[in-house]
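DOMAIN: structural biology
WANTED: fold as tokens
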Amino acid sequence: MASCKQLLFLFYVLINLFGHTIAQPNYFCTNNGNYISNSTYERNLNTLLSSLSSNTDKYGFYSSSVGQNPDRANAIVLCRGDVELQTCRSCINDTTTKLIQLCPNYKEAIIWYDECMLRYSNESINGTLTEWPKIYMWNTGNATSTNQFKQDLRALLDNLRNQAASSSGPRKFAAANTTGPDFQTIFGLVQCTPDLTERECSNCLLNAEGDIPTCCDGKLVWIVK
């Protein structure tokens, strides 16, 4: 996986064979300082994390903050656009517990599951773009008729990017499929957090597409976050 813009929850899934997917949780503990146990920041963070799941709306997005600087805790969650609310909230509950365990005393961290993502920080993150960290995932299978596969894939991605970025609704999400070489079906899914502008979302997705040659060129299955 890879993250073009960290807040954006850029989520590409490209699948050339239906049902053949890769998905596992990934996380990153950001080197942005540590908090002391039983500190004001820890209390604010725990209060914030405990509220995320129940406040996430039916569109799978929520961002909030607790406390005042310099102990202000900020968080954002986003679920994949095709995930039901119950599954979404369950995923968020899992991430809030897991990330604290994986990144103890870190002021900033991010985790991606297949169905959702969570990021928290001591800095403002709502509507803020960053290009790091990046995560890539792919399987070992290669597409046949590589040049044609790349052309079909590019056309699909261009269409999905335009749909997601230009959405005026509460989700910047698009998913579709197209027929690739040898009559195989290529599936694609892209998503941005809805707090981004059309240009920000489009640029982020373009940035991620630019990573394809170095990580996943010609692969049957890959994910960029």
Q: What stands out?
A: Confidence is low (pLDDT under 50) at residues 1-23. The longest helix spans residues 146-166.
